[in-house]
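User: Okay, second chain of the day. Same drill as before: sequence in, structure tokens out.
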Amino acid sequence: MKPQTAVQATIGERYRPVHLAREHGISTQAVRNYERDGLLPPAGRTAAGYRSYTSVHLHALRAYLALVPAHGYTTSGHVMRAVNQGDLDTALRAVDRSHAQLLRDRETLDAVEAAADALSRPPAAGLPDRPLSVGHLAHRLDVSPATLRKWERAGILQPVRDPHTGHRHYEASDVRDAQLAHMLRRGGYPLGHIATVMHQVRRAGGPEPLAHSLDVWRQRLADRGRAMLTAAGTLAEYLRVLDTTPHGDA
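Assistant: Same drill. Structure tokens below.
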């Protein structure tokens, strides 16, 4: 969310929930809920029993709301609770895991794009006009039948089974999927990435709609990466405020 009316943070100054809420265009109840859930440090109380927030709370709220579009609600909650409990190592590990996931998502996208490019070209060996057995497909790809069964367990292949014998039958689309998986394996992609590729290919319904979905996917990853940069800055500023605020003044 974009700030609406910035609140000038001055250490020692006190704020009501409405002051924090206005900056981000949220409700005062949301501010109270964030405090209740440990996303903000506990607020002080006035003599009349009203919540009293400080500069620490201003920066905590800014950090949390910047973390959400970058890392999601769950990870952002873990980070803020850990920081507010003084467990910086746990907080930074959560951020590290989220960055690592973004890298894996980028690598998966690269694999899907490679698959989309392969799908746009006719297969070198052509596709069979009748179902193949696991042995015939393994011979066609120069892999072992055990490899094909392993790909099936990973969700990469989905061959039909003969209702009487239980034998696998690989239709033309299954052969195409196997050829695609084989190409990606040669490119060094792990089975988990390839399974995601095949899911994207099947869901898109062809190379043209797949190409469009990849553009949208890449933009989402770019937006998330930029959000991570913003979140890193706001979290670092919150940590600086915590380090420079006398204990008990939060």
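Residues 138 and 146 are 9 Å apart (CA to CA).

User: Thanks, on to the next one.
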